[in-house]
User: Fold this.
Amino acid sequence: MSGLQARDIGITFEGLQPPAEVCEDPECPWHGNLKIRGALLVGNVVKLRARKMAVVEREHLVYVSKYKRYERRRSRIHARVPACIPLALGDQVLIGETRPLAKSVAWVVLGRIKKGG
Ligand SMILES: [Zn+2]
Assistant:
């Protein structure tokens, strides 16, 4: 169903709000036909150079048993940005896994969790 209102995407997450704007983007989880399935991740926007796409970086800890310590790892994920979600560099966003949208894009930004500084 695509209409004037954001549909219920079935995801609740602290700080996540449906977008204030409405878009006609078919690849929007709120107003288009895009389904979220798989994982949800939180990361920071580090690049906004491509049209409709953001590079989201996330840092996580991996335990190294030999040293009994954690090492920091980071990964960068390409995520589709729907037209109704305005983003700036440094913003913390929630992204959801979806079908492959392009060669390197299989995630979509669901919303901003925290404004970047
Ligand atoms: Zn939208």
Remarks:
- The beta strands are 40-47, 53-64, 69-80, 92-102, 105-114.
- The chain has a mean pLDDT of 94.
- The CA atoms of residues 61 and 91 lie 21 Å apart.
